[in-house]
Design a protein that fits this description.
The protein is built from 6 helices and 17 strands. It is α+β, with helices and mostly antiparallel strands. It has 2 domains: 175 residues, Sandwich (Jelly Rolls); 42 residues, DNA Excision Repair, Uvrb, Chain A (Irregular), CATH 4.10.860. Strands 1, 2, 4, 5, 6, 10, 14 and 17 form an 8-stranded antiparallel β-sheet that branches. Strands 3-7-15-12-13 form a 5-stranded antiparallel β-sheet. Strands 8-9 form a two-stranded antiparallel ribbon. α5 packs antiparallel against α6. The chain is globular. The two termini are 23 Å apart. The mean pLDDT is 95. Bound molecules: nickel (II) ion. Nickel (II) ion binds next to loops.
Length: 225
């Protein structure tokens, strides 16, 4: 699970929200499977609407230029972001996201990682926490507007009922080049350490070069592309 701050800057958040405010929302149950439809009570932007496509593009290009996201997710395919809205009394009960999602046409995507992009600040609503059930604890998460939470798609999770205000979020799934979560974690830690070493010793230091080689060769071993 990882918190990626400032995927969108404040100006982009404002732009998103202005567009979302004039959008036509629909009942989120229309895109839920039979199991999750019974616990889903929110509003969603139609995926093929002009606004969803425009905002989705903005988020995708912000992600591509975010080194922390790229290092943690090692994305192979990313589903264009969807957007949802929880108003007072709305929630999305415990569920696991679908394992396979349809991209455009006949292309499919295996969801390895789920992502929630917060577009409302934590002071703008009460309730509405994203709760993720992990093996030892349940994590309750509410991030600043523009921040992203990346979490394993295998986990049970829910959006708690909103009791005041409105909670706007973007969400999407991605297939990683590295399917195994433990391998992905090791690569992330190695990448972050190599970058730290490079800052301390310089890019051309022999150890930096060697460890950077180890990183790339491990990706070569483990990546499916
Ligand atoms: Ni979900």
């Amino acid at each position: 699970m990882m918190h990626i701050p400032r995927v969108l800057n404040p100006q982009q958040v404002t732009e998103c929200r202005t567009l979302l405010q004039r959008s036509q929302w629909m009942d989120g149950r229309q895109t839920a499977g039979p199991l999750s439809a019974s616990v889903k009570n929110n509003l969603q932007l139609p995926v093929d609407s002009l606004e969803a496509q425009q905002l989705g593009q903005m988020v995708l290009s912000a992600l591509e230029s975010n080194p922390l996201f790229m290092s943690a997710a090692l994305p192979r395919r990313v589903l264009p972001p969807h957007f949802n809205c929880h108003q007072v009394g709305q929630s999305y009960g415990l569920h696991v996201d679908n394992a396979v999602q349809r991209l455009s046409g006949s292309e499919m995507l295996r969801s390895d990682l789920s992502a929630t992009l917060f577009l409302s600040g934590p002071d703008e609503y009460e309730g509405g926490e994203l709760e993720i059930v992990a093996s030892l604890a349940t994590h309750s998460i509410k991030l600043a507007a523009g921040d992203l939470l990346l979490y394993p798609s295998t986990s049970l999770h829910q959006v708690c009922p909103v009791t005041r205000g409105t909670r706007l979020c973007g969400f999407f799934w991605l297939q990683s080049m590295v399917r195994d979560a433990e391998q992905r974690r090791l690569l992330f830690e190695l990448d972050q350490s190599v970058q730290q070493l490079a800052r301390e010793l310089g890019n051309s230091h022999a150890s930096v070069l060697q460890l950077s080689g180890v990183y790339h060769n491990l990706v070569r071993q483990w990546a499916d592309i």
